[in-house]
Each structure stands twice: as structure tokens, then as C-alpha cells.
Amino acid sequence: MTAVYGEASWFCCGAAWGPCGSAGGGACGTCASSKHQHAWPTVSSACTGITDPGACGVSLTARGCGFVHYVTNLCNSKEVSCSIADCGPNVHLFCGEKTCCGTSCGTNRLIDLTASAFSAVASLSSGLIPVKIDVVA
Amino acid sequence: MTTQVDRRRFLTSAALGGATIVGATALGSLAPEAAFGAAAPGVGPGDIDPQFAEGRVTSISGSLIVAAGSDGTLSAIQTTTGTSVWKLTPTSLSAIRPGDGLYARGVRMPDGSLAADALWVNIVSLDAHVANLASDHLDLDHHSSKIKAHVISGVSAAVYNGTPPVTDLSHVPVGGHVHVVGAWRPDTSEIDISTVYAKV
User: Fold this and answer.
1) Which fold has domain A4-134?
2) Of A113, B25, B92, B151, which one has the greatest count of Cβ atoms within 10 A?
3) CATH 2.40.50 fits B52-121, yes or no
4) Are the beta carbons of A9 and B125 separated by less than 8 Å?
């Protein structure tokens, strides 16, 4: 897979406080905010039907639960490795959305990291960050 | 890497020795932006990050916060004067209350406690459908739940299409979808808005 560039957000999953939508361990049943995990839009055909990255002209390789991606924050070059644990984000709802650090930009919401994974590369208050997503470190 | 190791050792020593630390040090800021990249070597994909903790605050005793994790474990979080705190805005340790939810990143100590670089108190990050826009709040739909998101004067901002944040939330698309970072009001279905990200 060629690395893809886009936006990353973060979410809570598993047993959690506050308005946490992905309760019960997420689509893979193993998701937890304290683990280096992420949601992926094409974790299953059913998931792809919901997230529909094709609506944004984005082609993402289908990957199953546990698959590892390497996510690099383009703002500071920090990288985190994380495994797929849930379905998301809803790519088609945010087509064309863009986040930049200077001239380093990511377009389209492609990946949702757990709080622990996101905070390994960015402050949680950042909300959205431009990232590179790859299958190798 | 050397800088991160030295910084870790400094923070650990300070927490153990109760030393007073200023926020900006010769090793670089201890602000949250400097806390990441501090995941311990060897944290594999899918693994629990030992340098991270989450839970609800059960007690605060001096510089020690005890939080009950969502998995039932208790976390002892040691704070220092160098610990950065976010509770809707950058703030101080005195703003933290029992019942608050938090995420913490720092350095795991030999006694099992976490010496915190950064605390994010009640922080939420969610995608939502905008059902209604009023002057002082948004009504959001999030995973079949209703959330009332309060607009806080002087704090709440909107980022439209990746442009710099503005305080004018009037362009938030009613009927559209947004991403919101905010602070949960504990034990309610309400949040205070830090930033709304919208494509318009």
C-alpha cells in the first residue's frame, strides 16, 4: 500500500466516562482508550458501506481487525503504531475537510485514533491533525 | 531521543524529590505539546500504553490525584508544578474536582504511579450531527444520543475548512456534521465547546 495522507481525529471506546459513543469494545470487541488502536473505514464490507470513502474519491485498502498502521503527525513527525479495533470515521460526512500545519496538510477524515494513540503524537486538545498513514514504520 | 530520556529522568526525579519545577525548563517546555512522542519505547500496536491513564477523579490529596479507570483499576497520578492541565482551556491543578474525567500522559514510576506531563480534564472529541444552532448552544446528535453543547464566551471557537479559529459560530451548518472538541459537564449530557470543526 502506498502511504495515504489525510486527517486524524481521536475518539473514546470501550468502557469510558462521558459521551463515549463506541462502547462495548467497538466493532472488533477489543477497543479501549488506553490501547494504541484506531478505527479504520474499511475494516469490513459493512463498515465500508457506512463510511463510504469512495464518496470522497478516496480508495482505502480493506484491512481487518488487528491490522497495524503507522501514523505520522505531519505537524511534528511523531509516529505511533496502532492496530485496527473499530469501524470509522464516517469519511463521507467530511469530504474535502482539510487540516494543515503550515504547508503540511491532510484532506479527508481517514482515521480515528484512541486517546492513548493520539496523545502519543499530539495534544488531545488539537482535535484534528494532518497525518500520513502507512503499513511500514 | 536523548533529550526525551533526559527529560523523563528529570521529571521522574522531580516527582520523587518533590522539587519545584518551572513550566519551561532548559530541556524544553513541559506543555502538552511536548508530552507526546513520550510513549515508552516498546509500546506495541494494540498494547496498553503504560505512560497513559484514564478515569474519573475519586480523590485529590495535595499533588496526588487518584482516578478510577473505566476498566475498574485505580490510577495514582502524581502532578508537579510542571504538569500542564487542560480543562476547556489551559488551566491549573486547582481546577480539577472529584468526579471529573481525565486522560493523563506522563512517566510511569517504579511504584506504579504516573508522573504526569499533561492532564486533559473532561475532554471529549466527537463527530456529531447539528440539529439546532442557538446563540448560546448547539444541539448535537451523537451516536443516537442528544448532547447540548454550550457556547462559552471568549472560549468557544469554530474552524471552518481548516482556516484559523474564529469566535463566530453562526456558520456552523445546521443539518450538517461537525467535529467538536470540548469539556464534558460531569454526569450530564452536556459539554462546553472548545472548538467546532466544520466544512462550509
Assistant:
1) Barwin-like endoglucanases (2.40.40)
2) A113
3) yes
4) yes
Q: Confirm or reject contact between A72 and chain B (CB < 8 A).
A: no
Minimal Cα distance from B200: which residue of A? A97
Cell reading at A42: 474499511
When the candidates are 3.20.20.70, 2.102.10.10, 3.90.660.20, 2.40.50.140, the CATH number that belongs to B123-198 is: 2.40.50.140
Cα A7–chain centre separation: 8
> What does each C-alpha distance from B159 to A85, B131, B132, B196 come to in angstroms?
29, 19, 18, 6
Q: Where do the domains of chain A lie? A: 4-134
The ipTM, to two decimals, is 0.95
Per-block mean pLDDT, blocks of 10 residues, chain A (137 long): 93 87 79 96 97 97 97 97 97 94 94 97 96 94
Specify whether the backbone of A134 is left (phi greater than 0), alpha (psi in -120 to 50) or beta.
Answer: beta
Q: What are phi and psi of A128, to 5 degrees?
A: -125, 140
